[in-house]
Design a protein that fits this description.
By secondary structure, this protein is an alpha/beta fold. The chain is built from 19 helices and 10 strands. A 5-stranded parallel beta sheet has the order 2-3-1-4-5, sandwiched between helices. Strands 7-8-6-9-10 form a 5-stranded parallel beta sheet, with helices on both faces.
């Protein structure tokens, strides 16, 4: 006869295992629908050193097709990536639609540990916390499922686990000096983690798991993940509503009010160009030495002269210290992510220039007018863009935005010139003519963009470009003035 198992502990353990198996099966079934419906999922696993973050991730991925997920540890930042904004490694790693990304530690550990190490000031810490809240909300509003876990263990349990790891030759490497410091300063870290979770849990809540009971933690994490996916599959992707934050805005004129008559003679232009380019080349060395990132954003009417303006800025720069990023229609892998992703991944290192020929402002212009995104998406983007640019200037970047402006008659003249000049004909497309027909709609959108996104930290400059020579000199002067101020303000 088969002996019955009446041990309550064994029965409870068997029930737990059965529940985990059932949840894994549901997750395995969900993954195909997640992929088919293009739901992007981010699972952030934070917690104490030796709490079992890696083990928990292994439990979560055990039944998922490896083609449908990735695991990253962005908190381990290579030296070259340390010269980018704080959120860069996390923003760079966000998944495509239909895929799951597991972060093995992330922005919590990065913020708290550096603050407790006094590698960042209290003011920098506050800015990072604000940036985290903005980043998480932007992901949620863009349709991402974001789930945040914290694996909790006691100081005694952590000490026991670390001791066991250090006693084994094969595992002793897993306990670092940083981990030992955390163990010694357990109370300090506990206060830091709790404060961070309180400040960053209002938009996307934190889920604290008992890391001392691995099977329970796995069950609870699986239940939360499966439940959130079920809800998203039933209700569809979340779309955030527009909202407004009071950024310090600079009042901008409407395009129709701008005087486009300023012009320079050839002699004036050559004299100014030589002097200003020499000065910009000198400043590039100072910018590099002081590790100041510089981001120049070019938008403007077709045939307004963006390319020629960019060339005059780039000419005196050391080619090893700048990039020009021409932004065209997004590629499929870019369309499959939150719209700012392709700009996060193109940011310059500290001390370098990045010149964007077209920018993230496509969201509130061409994407708005051509129906490539919803009304909620483009209306929400004004605030998201202001947040993004504030994060860049909090990092220390000089951000300057140029609208290269011409009138309709000048545009038509330049279109005809391109059409009738073989070596220039490639510049003119059918899309340029179609956009010209929508001039009034674009002008309305541009006026709204200038009014809502010209902030004191990242201002817009309208560059009168009926005379290209005048436009190039004006842009050079603006860049030089901004860099001289930034270099003076920055300690050597």
């Amino acid at each position: 006869m088969k002996k019955e198992n009446n041990d309550p502990a064994k029965q409870e353990n068997a029930a737990l295992k059965a529940e985990i198996k059932e949840l894994r099966g549901r997750l395995m079934a969900q993954q195909q629908e997640v992929r088919a419906k293009g739901l992007p999922i981010i699972v952030l696993v934070e917690g104490w050193s030796a709490a079992g973050k890696g083990s928990l991730i292994n439990e979560l991925i055990s039944e998922i097709d490896p083609r449908n997920y990735n695991v990253v540890s962005p908190v381990i930042t290579p030296e070259n990536e340390a010269r980018y904004p704080f959120l860069y490694p996390y923003a760079k790693a966000i998944p495509e639609n239909g895929k799951i990304m597991f972060y093995d530690s992330g922005w919590m550990e990065d913020c708290v540990r550096k603050y407790l190490r006094r590698e960042i000031t209290r003011d920098e810490y506050k800015k990072r916390v604000r940036a985290v809240c903005e980043f998480e909300r932007q992901l949620r509003d863009g349709g991402y499922i974001l789930l945040k876990f914290f694996l909790d263990i006691s100081q005694g349990e952590q000490r026991k686990r670390m001791s066991a790891l250090r006693e084994n030759y094969e595992t002793e490497w897993r306990v670092t000096d940083e981990d030992l410091w955390q163990q010694h300063e357990y109370k300090l870290f506990k206060e830091g983690y709790e404060a961070f979770m309180e400040k960053t849990g209002k938009i996307i809540p934190w889920h604290i798991l008992d890391g001392s009971k691995k099977s329970l933690a796995a069950r609870d994490a699986l239940k939360l993940l499966v439940g959130m996916i079920d809800k998203a599959l039933e209700q569809g992707r979340y779309v955030g509503k527009p909202f407004k934050e009071n950024f310090p805005l600079i009042k901008m004129p409407k395009l129709a009010e701008v005087d486009l008559s300023p012009a320079l003679t050839d002699e004036e232009y050559k004299k100014e160009l030589k002097k200003l380019q020499k000065r910009l080349g000198e400043l590039h060395n100072v910018v590099y030495r002081k590790k100041i990132p510089v981001i120049l954003c070019y938008e403007g009417w077709d045939a307004a002269g963006k390319g020629g303006n960019i060339r005059r800025i780039a000419r005196p720069l050391d080619p090893r210290g700048f990039d020009v990023m021409p932004i065209a229609s997004p590629e499929p892998h870019e369309l499959a992510r939150q719209y700012l992703w392709r700009f996060w991944t193109r940011l310059p290192r500290s001390g370098h220039f990045c010149i964007f020929d077209r920018t993230w402002y496509g969201r509130v212009m061409v994407e708005r007018l051509e129906g490539f995104c919803s009304e909620d998406d483009w209306k929400r983007a004004y605030n998201e863009i202001n947040e993004f640019e504030r994060q860049l200037t909090d990092w220390g970047a000089v951000v300057l935005k140029f609208w290269i402006h011409i009138d309709q008659d000048t545009q038509l003249q330049r279109f005809n010139d391109r059409q009738n000049t073989p070596e220039k004909a490639w510049k003119l497309t059918d899309e340029d003519w179609r956009n010209r027909e929508k001039w009034p709609q674009y002008e309305e959108a541009i006026d709204e963009m200038l009014q809502k996104t010209s902030t004191k930290n990242a201002p817009w400059f309208i560059i009168e470009s009926n005379d290209k020579k005048y436009a190039r000199i004006k842009a050079l002067k603006i860049v030089i003035d901004a860099l001289e101020k930034a270099c003076a303000d920055r300690m050597s």
